[in-house]
Amino acid sequence: MVGCTLLIFGLLASAAFFPLSSSDPNDEACLVNLSQSLEDPTNSLHNWTQSNLANPCNGFNSYIHGATCNSGRIYKLSLNNLSLRGTISPFLANCTNLQALDLSSNFLTGPIPSDLQYLVNLAVLNLSANRLTDQIPQELAFCAYLNVIDLHDNLLTGQIPQRLGLLVRLSTFDVSNNRLSGPIPSTLGNRSGNLPKFNASSFEGNKDLYGYPLAPLKNRGLSVIAIVGIGLGSGLVSLVLSFTAVCIWLKITERKMVVEEGKISQLMPDY
Ligand SMILES: *[C@@H]1O[C@H](CO)[C@@H](O)[C@H](O)[C@H]1NC(C)=O
Ligand SMILES: *[C@@H]1O[C@H](CO)[C@@H](O)[C@H](O)[C@H]1NC(C)=O
Ligand SMILES: *[C@@H]1O[C@H](CO)[C@@H](O)[C@H](O)[C@H]1NC(C)=O
Ligand SMILES: *[C@@H]1O[C@H](CO)[C@@H](O)[C@H](O)[C@H]1NC(C)=O
Ligand SMILES: *[C@@H]1O[C@H](CO)[C@@H](O)[C@H](O)[C@H]1NC(C)=O
Ligand SMILES: *[C@@H]1O[C@H](CO)[C@@H](O)[C@H](O)[C@H]1NC(C)=O
Ligand SMILES: *[C@@H]1O[C@H](CO)[C@@H](O)[C@H](O)[C@H]1NC(C)=O
C-alpha cells in the first residue's frame, strides 16, 4: 500500500518536474540557428542568450522574447515589428511543434525556406511587410493545417504555386503588393464549394499577375489609353476651334477695316 502510494507520488512528481529539466534538442537547433541568421540592431532579443536558447521553455512559460510554450515545446513564435534584419533560417523547421510563426513588419531579406514544409502543425504563417525575395515555395502545400498565409508587402517573384489551392483549411491568403506574375491559379482565385473565397484585395499590387478575381488586364490597359486619348483629343479640338475663331475674327476685322478705309477715302475730297 505504501509502496503503491510512493510509486504514484513518484510518477506524479516526475511528470511535474520532467519538463522543468528537459530541453528539446530540435527547438534548440531551431532557435540557435534562427538567432544566427537574424540581425537585431535594436537589441530587441536581448534575452535570447545562449543558455535561454538551450532551454527556452519551462512547461508553459518561455524565457525568451516572442516565444510561447506548450508542454515544454515552442508552439508560437511572434517576432513582429522589431526592426529585425537578416534572413529566415531553414533550421526554423526544427521547431517541429510550431503552430504560429509571425515575423511580420521587419526588414528580412532572402527567400522563404522551402524547409518550412516540415512544420506539419503550422496553422498561421505571417511573413508580411518584409523584403523577402524569390518564389513562394510550393512545398508549403504540405503544411496541411495552414489557415493563414500572409505574405503581403514583400518582393516575391514568380507565379503563385497552384498546389497551395490544395490547402482546404486556408481562410486567409494575402500576397498583395509583391512582384508576382502569371495567372492566378483558379484553385485560389475561384475556389469551389464551401471553401472561403479570396477577393481581389488578396492579389492586387502585383504588376504582372492576372486572372480572376483581378480586373481584366487588357481592359485596364485600354481604359488608361482611352482616358489619355480623350484628354489629348479634346485638347487638340479646342486648340483648333480657338485658332479658327481667332482667324475668323481677324478676317472680319480686316474686312471691316477695308470697308472703313473705303468710306474714309470716299469722304475725302479729291485734290
Ligand atoms: C534539425 O533539422 C535538421 C535538418 O532537417 C536535421 O538534420 C536535424 O536532425 C534536426 N535536429 C537537430 C537537433 O539538429
Ligand atoms: C544549427 O543548429 C545545430 C544544433 O544547434 C548546429 O549543430 C548547427 O551547426 C547549426 N547550423 C548553423 C548553420 O548554425
Ligand atoms: C525577455 O524580454 C522581453 C522584452 O524584450 C520581456 O518582455 C520578457 O519578459 C523577457 N523574458 C524573460 C523570461 O526575461
Ligand atoms: C512598431 O514599433 C514601433 C516602435 O518600435 C511603434 O511605434 C509602432 O507603433 C509599431 N507598429 C505596430 C503596427 O505595432
Ligand atoms: C500579419 O501581421 C501584420 C502586421 O504585423 C498584421 O497587420 C496582419 O493582420 C497579420 N495578418 C493576419 C492574417 O493576421
Ligand atoms: C469559377 O468556377 C466555376 C466552376 O466552379 C465556373 O463556372 C466559373 O466560370 C469560374 N469563374 C471564373 C471567373 O473563372
Ligand atoms: C475582401 O476580403 C477581405 C477579407 O478577406 C475583406 O476584409 C474585404 O472587405 C473584402 N473586400 C471586398 C471588396 O469585398
- Tally of distinct domains: 2
Distance between the termini: 157 Å
| Main CATH class of the largest domain | Alpha Beta
Shape: globular
Mean pLDDT: 84
* H/E series: HHEHEEEEEEEEEEHEH
DSSP helix fraction: 25-40%
Architecture per CATH nomenclature, i.e. the level-2 architecture of the largest domain: Alpha-Beta Horseshoe
What about the largest sheet?
A: 6 strands, mixed
Discrete helix count: 5
CATH fold group of the largest domain: Leucine-rich repeat, LRR (right-handed beta-alpha superhelix)
List ligands, each type once. Answer: 2-acetamido-2-deoxy-beta-D-glucopyranose
Judged by helices, strands and strand pairing, the structural class is alpha/beta
Strand tally is 12
Beta-strand content estimate: 5-15%
How do the strands of the widest beta sheet line up side by side? Answer: 4-5-7-8-9-10
CATH superfamily of the largest domain: Ribonuclease Inhibitor
Q: Roughly how many Å is the radius of gyration?
A: 35 Å
* Uncertain regions spanning at least 5 consecutive residues: 1-21, 267-271
Can you give a write-up of this model?
The protein has helices at 2-21, 25-37, 50-54, 186-189, 217-267; strands at 38-39, 57-58, 61-62, 67-70, 73-78, 85-86, 100-102, 124-126, 148-150, 172-174, 181-183, 208-210. It is an alpha/beta fold. The protein folds into 2 domains: 21-210, Leucine-rich repeat, LRR (right-handed beta-alpha superhelix); 221-271. Helix content is 34%, strand content 13%. β2 and β3 form a beta hairpin. The radius of gyration is 35 Å and the shape is globular. The chain binds 2-acetamido-2-deoxy-beta-D-glucopyranose (7 copies). One 2-acetamido-2-deoxy-beta-D-glucopyranose binds next to loops.
